[in-house]
Design brief:
single chain; mainly beta; 3 domains; 4 helices; elongated
Amino acid sequence: MARRKTRPQKGINQIEGQMSLWDIKITINDVSVTKIKENITEISNPITRLSLVEEVTKSEKVQKELILTDKQQRFLEKNKVMENESLSRITLLCSGSLLVEFIFGENYKTICINKDGVIELSYDKRIALVPMDKIIYYKDDMKPNELQEEKLLAIQDKVTKVLKRKGDENIIAIAAGKVISINKQGWVLEYKGVQAVYDEEDVRVKTAADEIINEDFKVGESVEVEFNKKIYKGVITRIYNGGDTINCIFDNKHTAFYRSKVKKVKCS
């Protein structure tokens, strides 16, 4: 018996050999549909924060808004992408393409949708982001690791602002004329002549120099440290970088902190 060929759904162009959205198992989570649809409405509005910097001449640059196209919006709604319980993250790239990321256990599947709402590429992995990309949906936040924190400490005197965007595994630092991104492998990547896309609530440290507390610390002193937005009691084990970096042991962890994140324990 001849096998019947399945016709592709009208409106979705697919290059031979490419993965389409229909190759991904779609499961519906009715509980979160309402909340997610609200997010779709919100991201369809113009995003006024900077997004993409394009060089016109050597001396003149213009900024473009980073927005979701109507066709990309229709793709998300028509295919019920945001109702998929395996959906992990959606990112609007500074190029204008849309990355839709799914997670299956410990494995990732990412599809790239162009401005015309067509699937162009697919990857069997999570795609690294740059500071100029806009995260418009994420399921789980990502915390920086100790290697990233150590790399940040090494450049803290050169930056004016430190960012930790929700849904982004990178630490972003703002410096004069450039944006610095520290990935989970500890690579310190610099982008010149661009601006990072972020919300004010993503700012972790404003100006390192302004955050320094005029207080003398000594090795062995009991202190309180701020770690992952929680306060712990610990003991100072080492002080370096001219007193700006304080290494503490707390809750069976051994970690270096900015001086501003360490306070002496007040005696009652």
